[in-house]
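Example record

One chain of 186 residues, shown exactly as stored in the release files.
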Amino acid sequence: MSRLDEAFAAVPRAGFLPPDVRRHAASDRPLPIGYGATNSQPWTVRSMLALLDARPGDRVLDVGSGSGWTTGLLAHLVGPDGEVVGVEIVPELVAMGRRNLGERWPWARIEQALPGVLGLPDAGPFDRILVSADGGRIPPELEAQLAPGGRLVLPASGLMTVVDRAESGALTRSTTGDRFVFVPLV
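Predicted structure tokens for this chain:
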């Protein structure tokens, strides 16, 4: 069983959905979680996590954490020697995500995003950054929070994009060619 298979088995989607949509947890489609946000379809989440390649001990920033599912999956992948910080702009989703995470992963938490600030610049740098919303571009503010040897995975204008920072600090940007639809990054 792959590490991703283990994470998906250990962190079931249903536990991160509102009660009225839990019956659809196995559906490979985005599901509404309220406040104009969705819980991304499992295929998309799996694809992004495969690209991200979070490893045990990594420090990870989860931008647009929503109901906390990706934060929980990332917490499983980095283990207790790592750290995962989810950020979410909608206060009600911050509360929902915190409830959903509970105390299962003390090395993972969800913070309220500050209006007009992308990520957590004062808490970086991060080994991995996952963005689950589309801002139409690659935000330099998030690239600046990426540690040497780190990776950022995000949709940009519908294209899944990977940004790698070399140990020298140089950035390389590429797309997978796959198109995705995400809620807007605000």
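Notes: The chain has five helices and nine strands.
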